[in-house]
Amino acid sequence: MRAILAVLTVVAVLIGFWYAAAVPMNIKGVLVEAERAGAVVTPDNGAERRAMSPWALILPNSFAIPATWAQDRPRLPAPHQVAVELWETTVEKKITSKRSLVFHGWVTLSATLLGFAIGTGLGILLAVGIVHSRVMDMSVMPWAIVSQTIPIIALAPMIIVVLYSIGVQGILPKAVISAYLSFFPVVVGMVKGLRSPDAMQLDLLRTYNASRAQTFWKLRLPASMPYLFASLKIGIAASLVGAIVGELPTGAVSGLGARLLAGSYYGQTVQIWSALFAAALLAAALVALVGLIQRMTLARMGMTA
């Protein structure tokens, strides 16, 4: 109960800060609209107001504070505006509607899951090769590390163009970008896990004359499971980010990335924030699902999560 109260307190404080931040962010726009509607604002000169700090405008125009939380196109929407937009675009819209966040979320989720599957499979294969081959350890691992130093926002358009030139379109280019972001944590975590058995455990299997395959399946792989699931939690979130980034350079018309683009084109900040929250909720659900699979798998193996 105390933990729930602590969490609710932190959430309430964050929402309070959010409302407070919306006032200076939106005050200038609100005063322009109020002046056009015939209200008396201070100062009454628009150029002078634009030169002033937003903080200096709040106190003499305190009547405008409630309006900063209700603008149609605010710089920073208030929390209730984002909540209303989320409700209207998830519950009140048909999931087949192109205005539904469920529809756009599914488009992004499909690319995320495909990219996550590709990245996880590739990461596990590379990790097994790196652990069992010194040549791969010295040649592949440095490249895997270097690959993650390239900003994905710069790499994504090149991947899209290259794949488009060879006729690959649709969900696959986005999945490739997702896989690019998700394979690295899997490689690092799996290599660490496969190398986690200590020398005494390996010596014990040698005394049993166990082959390399038996050592892998009976010792290294089970020992790597906690490391693998920790990496998968990072990988699934990174995969979602990759799918969203992959939608940006393609000019996609569906997906959470497309909602972000459309919101930025038309100045719909409420739409942008609702898409961001939808992406965050989707990521939290995916990480929770991986955590649930982790607990079930480790419990079945007699290990604790």
Can you walk through the features of this model?
The chain is mainly α and 305 residues long. Helix content is 76%, strand content 0%. The chain contains 13 helices and no strands. The protein has helices at 2-36, 46-51, 54-58, 65-68, 79-90, 101-132, 134-147, 152-165, 171-194, 199-207, 212-247, 256-265, 269-300. Helix 6 (101-132) packs antiparallel against helix 7 (134-147), helix 6 runs antiparallel to helix 11 and helix 11 (212-247) packs antiparallel against helix 13. The protein starts with a helix and ends in a 5-residue tail after the last helix. The model has no long low-confidence stretch (mean pLDDT 91).
Query: How many DSSP E strands?
Result: 0
> What gap, in angstroms, lies between the N and C termini?
23 Å
Uncertain segments are none
Shape assignment: elongated
Provide the structure class: mainly alpha
The succession of helices and strands, N to C, reads HHHHHHHHHHHHH
Query: How much helicity do the residues have?
Result: over 70%
Oligomer: single chain
Global mean pLDDT: 91
Strand content: under 5%
- The helix tally amounts to 13
Rg, Å, rounded: 26 Å
Strand count, sense and closure of the main sheet? Answer: none
